[in-house]
Structures are given as C-alpha cells and as structure tokens.
Amino acid sequence: MRSEVLAAAGAEPYEMTEYQGMADFPWATSSVVDARKLAEALKVVCQRPEVVLLRIISLVDDVESISIKDERVTKH
C-alpha cells in the first residue's frame, strides 16, 4: 500500500509516521495549484477502503483550508 500511495503522489512526503497500524504521509506544496494536483493524483488511491484522507491546511491568508471527512464505519 505504501509504495502505491508514494507512486501515485509522485513526490516524497516531508515525513512519515506510523501509529496503531496506520501510516501518516504529510506533504507540503508551495502553491494551492500544486496541492490540488497532489490531491487529484491521490484520488484513485483514496478509493481503497484501507486509505483515509484528507486535510489540506492552508498557511496563506485568505485561502481556506479544505477538509474531506472520511465517513466509513470502522471496527475498533
């Protein structure tokens, strides 16, 4: 799964952490356009049930952050 996510993104995340069997891949981009391209590239991978996405945080004034809440029911 990890290699599929990285291949789809076409870019290395700036770090990678694992916690309770989940891996977190945070990326940073230099523009909103690049962020949207990255999100678009990950859309296919996001359809897999074992992938949970996405929070795009804007550090630019007057550009809102975007949240896509995962609505799947998980077993705890």
Going across the major beta sheet, what is the strand order?
Answer: 1-2
Please indicate the percent range of residues in DSSP E strands (runs of 2 or more). Answer: 5-15%
Number of discrete helical segments? 2
Strand tally:
4
Number of domains: 1
What does this structure look like?
With 76 residues, the protein is α+β, with helices and mostly antiparallel strands. The protein has one domain. The chain contains 2 helices and 4 strands, in the order αββαββ. It has a two-stranded antiparallel sheet. A hairpin with a 2-residue loop joins strand 1 and strand 2.
Short synopsis of the structure:
The protein has 76 residues and is of the alpha+beta class. Helix content is 30%, strand content 13%.
